[in-house]
Write a structure and sequence with these properties.
about 80 residues; mainly alpha
């Protein structure tokens, strides 16, 4: 789904991290991170959780099920 890649890229860019630095933080390859962002590959559930925890967003936000980034405001 295109929305997932867009959200992953947007979150990374919002904190001005390079793909290489975030990949190191998540213990994945930079090329894998690039594939996630262009929707060529889907992150594993573990990587989705790393994104959610690192950026303090819900999995629903990452999946495009809500526009609300703040976890406590989702109902």
């Amino acid at each position: 789904m295109k929305i997932i890649g867009e959200r992953l890229r947007s979150l990374r860019e919002s904190v001005r991290l390079s793909q290489a630095k975030l990949a190191k933080e998540f213990d994945v390859s930079q090329s894998a991170l690039a594939r996630y962002e262009i929707d060529d590959s889907t992150p594993s559930p573990e990587v989705f959780l790393k994104y959610a925890d690192y950026f303090d967003v819900s999995l629903d936000y990452l999946m495009g099920r809500t526009e609300c980034r703040e976890i406590n405001k989702i109902k």
